[in-house]
């Protein structure tokens, strides 16, 4: 496979994809190949477009030129994103990769808008498109090159789990479709005098704008703070629970500071009776080993739990049964009973299910739960904290 040959030829230690330097090399190689292929395609299609007087082919040529510029910005993005953390940016520069993709997206949209205008002009003022066999064969060759580039970018993107390279693969596959449409319109121009070239050019231009808009959307999501990868969430939870004396987890929050650069915090439930130095050693070990294994920075907060028997266990079971009646409540945690005598405070956190929308304020939700509990245990006062689900 030619893609593997290029990787083995130009990337040292290419199997060590967890290494930042190796990952950076993959991104740079992908960018360089993208520049070379798209530059060749631009020259081929521009020459054919001018020779045949085809606005659709010229539009497709400049689409490839914008792809070459995209690859250049991708290289710069990988280089800048790999800069180490400093005083002004303690979490590193990983999000620059997203910003570079955002610049590329706006460039793509600008090219598309320009060719919408040019294509409309061609429809209203049509010109004859000259069909020749050699230029048509060159177009078919350019389509083959784009097919290979899509496969190459997908291979590289999957190898290092890079959203930028995966997006480049999808973009190249879209170009295969547009270029094929352009080739068909060029061939049909041999048989008709209708301004089909202008209409196909308009379709290509609209597709370019749509592709740019999709890239903007995909790039803004991680910048705004999208939900974390479910597989990463499951891996963190399962690994934390695998350690001795950790009986439950909650309040997992994951922050994304660029591809492969995540910081996570989680609350681990531990028995209240355990020796503090022993559990501290276990928590330290879990933080260190999980961080190294998943290539993240993990912080674990200890929550002592004392729900074993007696009044506390009975109160917990009753409230858990009541809470399960609410569809918009996912779980409870940090349950405690505080006070002496008949009057006691029940203190616990409630996790809301974000997928279920209800017309109640936070205070109304807490008041509703408190009233239900008060009807069962008049001597219990509820102190409830509402937790948001960040997953």
TrEMBL record:
Where is each Cation efflux protein transmembrane domain found? 32-224
The membrane spanning regions, by residue number, are 26-44, 98-116, 136-156, 194-216
* Keyword list, A-Z: Membrane, Transmembrane, Transmembrane helix, Transport
Kindly give the SUPFAM superfamilies that the UniProt entry links to this protein: Cation efflux protein cytoplasmic domain-like, Cation efflux protein transmembrane domain-like
What InterPro entries does the record point to? Cation_efflux, Cation_efflux_CTD, Cation_efflux_CTD_sf, Cation_efflux_TM, Cation_efflux_TMD_sf, CDF_Transporter
Chief location of this protein within or outside the cell = membrane
Has keyword Transport?
yes
Pfam families assigned: Cation_efflux, ZT_dimer
Q: Which domain of life is it from?
A: Bacteria
Q: Where in the cell is it found?
A: Membrane
In the bilayer, the protein is annotated as: Multi-pass membrane protein
Similarity comment text for this entry: Belongs to the cation diffusion facilitator (CDF) transporter (TC 2.A.4) family.
What's this protein's name? Cation diffusion facilitator family transporter
**Which species is this UniProt entry from?**
Clostridium weizhouense
């Amino acid at each position: 496979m030619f893609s593997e040959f290029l990787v083995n030829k130009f990337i040292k230690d290419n199997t060590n994809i967890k290494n930042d330097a190796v990952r950076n090399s993959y991104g740079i190689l992908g960018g360089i190949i993208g520049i070379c292929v798209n530059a060749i395609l631009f020259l081929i299609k521009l020459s054919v477009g001018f020779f045949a007087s085809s606005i659709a082919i010229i539009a497709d040529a400049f689409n490839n030129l914008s792809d070459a510029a995209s690859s250049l910005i991708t290289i710069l993005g990988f280089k800048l994103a790999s800069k180490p953390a400093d005083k002004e940016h303690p979490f590193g520069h990983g999000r620059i990769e997203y910003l570079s993709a955002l610049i590329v997206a706006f460039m793509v949209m600008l090219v598309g808008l320009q060719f919408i205008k040019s294509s409309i002009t061609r429809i209203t003022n049509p010109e004859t498109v000259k069909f020749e066999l050699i230029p048509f064969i060159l177009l078919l060759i350019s389509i083959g090159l784009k097919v290979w580039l899509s496969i190459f970018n997908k291979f590289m993107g999957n190898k290092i789990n890079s959203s930028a390279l995966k997006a480049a693969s999808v973009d190249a596959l879209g170009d295969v479709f547009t270029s094929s449409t352009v080739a068909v319109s060029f061939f049909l121009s041999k048989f008709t005098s209708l301004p089909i070239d202008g209409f196909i050019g308009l379709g290509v231009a609209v597709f370019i704008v749509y592709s740019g808009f999709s890239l903007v959307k995909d790039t803004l999501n991680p910048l705004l703070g999208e939900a974390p990868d479910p597989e990463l969430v499951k891996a963190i939870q399962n690994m934390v629970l695998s350690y001795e004396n950790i009986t439950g987890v909650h309040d997992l929050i994951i922050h994304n500071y660029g591809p492969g650069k995540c910081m996570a915090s989680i609350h681990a439930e531990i028995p209240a009776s355990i020796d503090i130095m022993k559990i501290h050693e276990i928590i330290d070990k879990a933080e260190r080993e999980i961080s190294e294994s998943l290539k993240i920075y993990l912080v674990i907060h200890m929550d002592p739990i004392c729900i074993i028997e007696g009044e506390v266990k009975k109160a917990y079971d009753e409230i858990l049964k009541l809470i399960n009646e609410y569809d918009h409540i996912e779980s409870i945690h940090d349950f405690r009973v505080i006070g002496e005598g008949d009057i006691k405070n029940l203190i616990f956190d409630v996790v809301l299910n974000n997928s279920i929308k209800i017309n109640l304020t936070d205070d109304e939700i807490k008041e509703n739960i408190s009233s239900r509990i008060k009807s069962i245990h008049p001597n219990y006062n509820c102190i409830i904290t509402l937790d948001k689900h960040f997953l």
